[in-house]
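Hi Y.,

Following your request, here is the sequence exactly as I used it, all 274 residues.
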Amino acid sequence: MKKAKPSHGHSPKKKLVLKPAISQPDDTPTVMPLNKYLAHSGICSRRQAAEEVKAGKVRVNGEVITEPGFKVGPEDKVMLQDKPVQIVKQMVYILLNKPKDFLTTAEDEMGRKTVLDLVKTATKERVYPVGRLDRNTTGVLLLTNDGDLAQQLTHPSFEVKKIYEVKLNKDVAVVDLEKLAHGIELEDGPIKADAIGYAALPAKNIVGIEIHSGRNRIVRRMFEHLGYDVENLDRVMFAGLTKKNVTRGKWRLLDESEIRLLKHFKAGKKQRKD
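Below is the corresponding structure, written out as C-alpha cells. Let me know if you'd prefer a different format.
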C-alpha cells in the first residue's frame, strides 16, 4: 500500500522576519529605575545619574527623589535641575582622536575647551565622553548618549582593555619594564601592566603599555613611581577601537559592526571566563 504524499497546496507559508543588525531604543523598557532613565536620556552614565539623584537634583512629578532605583515610566515628568528629561530617540556613537589641551568633560566652569567643542557638528543629540583622558593625553575617546554602554565600559568589573604609547624623558631600563609587568605598589594600591614593551626600537624611551585599570592618571603615576617623566601619552586603543584613519582632532561615527561589538562586550567577557 502506497503512503499518501503530504499535500503542499494548502500549507501556510512561513513569514520571513528580518531583524535589525543592532538594537534600537524602541526596545527600552517602559518602566525603569530613575538612574537608568536619566542614562537613556543621554545626560550621563548610569553611575553618574545615581549620584545626581542622591544629591537631590532630580524631581519626578514635582517631588524630589533621592533613590536611584525609584521606578519611572513614560507618563512621569522627570526634571534634572529644573530642566525636563526625556528618553533619547536615537543612539549616537562617536570616536574622537583627542588632541592636547582639551578637557574630557561636558562643560567647564572656567570656559576652557572641551572635547564636545570638537564634535559639535557630529549630532544634534546630547553626547558625553565615556571615561576620561587627562587634558594633555591624546588619542582614542568614545562619546555617546548610550548610558548603559557608558556604564559597561567604565565599570572596573568589565576590565576594558586600553593600550597607550608613552614617551618618557629618558630611556626605560629593562628592569623597570619587568617591574611594571610584575606589579608595583602605589599609594592607592597595587597595579601592573597586562603587557608592556618598547614601542619604537631602537628608541628605548617610547613604550607601549596595555592596561585595564581605570584609576586616575594611572599610566603617568606608574612611570613617575619609577623615576620617569611622561612627555607624551597617547591612547591608541580603547575597548577594541583604534584611531586608524582618524587624524588628531577629528572624529567619525562608529559603524554598525563596531557598535555591535561594544554592546556584546559583557557577554564576550563572560564567555571567556567560562
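Confidence is low (pLDDT under 50) at residues 1-27, 270-274.

Thanks again,
Q.
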